[in-house]
């Protein structure tokens, strides 16, 4: 249970740090660069302590490709927090569970239960509520790109999760530590390359903030794997997702006085119900 609580705390910290950086007008790409640099260093030391770690060319290529998707999804999450608020961006990231579920049905022939089908329908309804929540928010001017960021978070994180499923079924477990190191190292190279190409000046405080972000980003994966080893997945995923949504919403309301309009509150409730059904 401690691992489950630490998973929720780490994942909630990610959303709140992204919000803090946005409130301080920190460049999100610069933040991500610091984040991936620290995550890469942590994963490197993890490889050094893994006596059974092995590597193959297939895992290297897959990790380098997946790193691009990681950067895309994380950048979209940072922009979604800015555009839609911390609570709705977090709900969108948690609803990403429908993507690996749908792909597992199509590619691996898995059959969804009645509850999972119901959860997917409610999730679609939640996305519609997202749209009305943002459209009716008179406090800021919204553009089509703002809606794109929420969908990008949902599909980006969902594809990342499904890629992990592919790796688990395709490659040996002994390559896992190297796989994580390749993902974070390649992500670091990608983000710093973009910074150089766009000539974005390096701000020490934003890089430090990104380094802080890298710690919960790395350990959120570590703790959820530990939680799955101690508890059944049917408990871990719904409790984790709902806990992250509620804790993030409370944190954003207390720290930044973020408020949800009626559609936003309905989207929050609908998203939680969808996650419960998807976990049954």
Number of domains: 1
Strand content: under 5%
The number of distinct β-strands equals 0
Low-confidence runs (pLDDT<50, min 5 residues)? none
Shape: globular
Q: How big is the Rg?
A: 18 Å
Could you spell the SSE succession in H and E letters?
HHHHHHHHHHH
Overall residue-averaged pLDDT value: 86
**Biggest β-sheet description:** none
The span between the termini is 19 Å
Provide an overview of this structure:
With 280 residues, the chain is mainly α. It has one domain (2-279). It has helices at 2-23, 28-49, 57-84, 86-94, 98-108, 114-135, 144-170, 176-198, 204-230, 233-256, 262-279. Helix 1 (2-23) packs parallel to helix 10 (233-256) and helix 4 packs parallel to helix 11 (262-279). The model has no long low-confidence stretch (mean pLDDT 86).
Outline the secondary-structure elements.
Elements (H helix, E strand, L loop, with lengths): L1 H22 L4 H22 L7 H28 L1 H9 L3 H11 L5 H22 L8 H27 L5 H23 L5 H27 L2 H24 L5 H18 L1
Helix pairs in contact: 1-3, 1-9, 1-10, 2-8, 2-9, 3-4, 3-7, 3-8, 4-7, 4-10, 4-11, 5-7, 6-11, 10-11
